[in-house]
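I hope you will forgive my troubling you with a question about protein structure. Here, with my thanks, is the record as I have it:
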Amino acid sequence: MPRETADVKAASVGAAPAQARDRVRDQKDDEFTARALELAAKGRGLASPNPMVGAVLVRDGEVIAEGFHTYDGLRHAEIIALEAAGERARGATMYVNLEPCCHTGRTGPCTRALIAAGVARVVAAMADPNPAVAGRGLKELRAAGIQVDCSCTSGACEQARRLNEAFAWWIRKRRPLVTLKTALTLDGSLVLPRSRNGNESRWITSDISRAEVHRMRHASDAIITGIGTILADDPLLTDRSGLPRRRPLLRVVLDSRLRLGLKSQVVRSAQHDVLVFTCASSSSARAKKLAALGVEIFHVRARRGRPDLQAALEELGRRDILSAMLEAGPLLNQGALEADLVEKVRLFYAPTLVGLGSSLPGLPPSKRSRMPRARELSGVRTENFGPDFAVEGYLHDVYRNH
């Protein structure tokens, strides 16, 4: 056999085991990164206004410690895992869904702790979305001789971005990411017609869909609606998922003339978790009565005779509200869309027809936009909930300046 041919054959034989080892390593990286994401999600409702972070410490292919961050727990996920591992952390691999921090805030930098612990490798699903920080933590780890890899296979990067999309938006825009949620019939009606006996069904979608909506509320810092919805439906607007949360869901009402009823469910259940944005005086007798019942009244400038939604969102951002669900009627929904203040939509469709062409009932033609702007959603996903299905998509790329 010619020497050249023999060398090629030997190289190919040696390459096969190396490729197999790389495949096994990639599979393990995917497995442990998925676990880090699973742990991070346990911080939903508990980590805000910080991002959700999970950490898995692995040595010789075995998990030796784990952790996830909660705001009240103070310690970051990486620190929890490092403390649990102790000396076993030396030479280990740390899997995290978010780049370790390299600055001092409420806690010290995780990068220094990782370096001091002797961690040999860090696998991060995504970089920190904060423009002032992004990449610096990974750079610091590399400079200390730690191997750093980004786990972007099997959709890990996309999952990590979706998990902390509200934080990514808020840290750059300083206002909450707004998700417009609504329930509709297949032909686009927002309400059901009255039945023959004069009663009107309150719900369009199924119990399964409504349970998902409460999970959405649980993942949100605030829920926003208009006074029209309050007067028409008298909703409670609470998170009834039964899942733990660090701070109560902030119930926000846009009420230009302060018509919120003292006996409405929102007011009767208020425990300093109701915020009303109004164009009326915040020192009026009615405002004082509402305040005495645990409702905060906040005056904002008027825009077209209604509270300026952008000003309201900016105030929510100053209060560390990262995410807000817009659950309102067609008028407020339309206004938010026209003002380009909605980043994400989730529409729940029931298998019901009211009458083709009945879209946006209750919205007089005179109040509809004369020249509506067509908007195309990106990242569209659909999901079934019992007899219903939901369509979700984005109007903005939450990681890109625009």
In short: The CA atoms of residues 97 and 160 lie 6 Å apart.
